[in-house]
Amino acid sequence: MKLSRNKIFFLGLCFVFFLSHASSASDTKLKVVASIAPLADFARQVGGDKVVVTLLLPPGASPHTYEPTPRTMQEISQAKIFIKIGAGLEFWADKLVAAAAKDVVTVDCSRGVALIHALDHEKHGAGNVDPHYWLDPVIAIGMVKKIEEAYAKADPADSSYFAQRASSYIAVLTALDKQIAETVKTFRTREYVTFHPAWNYFSRRYGLTVAGVIEEGPGKEPTARHIDRILREIRRLKIRVVFAETQFSPRMAEAIAREAGGRVLMLDPIGGQKERASYIGMMRYNLALMKKAMG
Amino acid sequence: MPEALASPFMQKALMAGVLVSLLTGLISTFVVLRKMSFVGAGISHAAFGGVAIGFYAGFNPLLAAVVYAVIVAIGIETTAKRGRISEDVSIGIFYSISMAIGIALVSLSQSYNIDLFGYLFGNILAITHDEIILTLITSAVVIAIILFFLKELFLITYNEELARVSGIRVNLLNILFLVALSVSIVVSIRIVGIIMVSALLVVPGATARLFAKGLRSMIAISCAAGLVSVVAGLFFSYQYDIAPGAGIVLTSAVIFFTSLVLKKRG
Question: Chain A closest CA to B249's CA: distance in Å?
Answer without folding.
Answer: 15
